[in-house]
Specification:
Length: 198
């Protein structure tokens, strides 16, 4: 009888894993999950990320078995449906979704830098208008530089032309910005702020 009980306990233990989900989620703590559960399953069990504070692109997975820390771009999974980093978890793994240190995107024209408060759903067109963008020609380049969790010198880039935004072409105007994005426009394309009257 004792042998049967021990075997049943061993089978149950091997069919579950304990993982920690920490940081900017609704319920950060340890979770007992079925073996083979994935990153998204664990984050879902924790109530999902806090989208107003979570730095989804800087998520990390620390493997207890190897002491390895794996960078994960949760934004890519949630907003683009790209699941190549939806890894199967192992017992003792720790998922951490850190807070974003400053909730800003930056519009930059030469040495003129305009920081803008970031909110989920902010579009390229809205950011350019808020920064006082005034292109001098129809073909001025616009580049969005997006940091990745794979190192400070590695980023994704997205290139547009001013004519597509001026003419209201949907895709570029409605391009969704992410926390930490840097929008580069031509030198002199940002109007200086109007001084307040005393």
């Amino acid at each position: 009888m004792l042998t049967a009980i021990l075997c049943a306990a061993a089978i149950q233990a091997s069919s579950t894993i304990t993982v920690s989900v920490l940081g900017e989620v609704s319920n950060p703590r340890n979770y007992i999950l079925p073996a083979g559960s994935t990153v998204l399953k664990a984050v879902s069990m924790a109530g999902g990320p806090k989208l107003d504070t979570a730095s989804l692109r800087m998520t990390t997975l620390r493997r207890k078995s190897s002491a390895e820390t794996v960078p994960i771009d949760l934004a890519r999974m949630y907003f683009k449906g790209k699941l190549e980093q939806n890894y199967a978890l192992k017992d003792g793994d720790v998922l951490t979704i850190p807070p974003y240190p400053n909730r800003f995107i930056t519009v930059q024209s030469g040495t003129n830098v305009v920081p803008l408060h970031f909110e989920v759903g902010l579009t390229l067109g809205e950011a350019l208008r808020a920064a006082g963008w005034a292109p001098k020609s129809d073909k001025e380049p616009i580049r969005v530089e997006r940091p990745t969790p794979f190192g400070p010198n590695l980023s994704d880039t997205y290139d547009f032309s001013s004519d597509t935004l001026i003419q209201g072409v949907d895709a570029p105007v409605n391009f969704l910005l992410s926390e930490g994005d840097i929008v580069h426009v031509a030198k002199g394309a940002l109007r200086p702020p109007i001084p307040k009257k005393e």
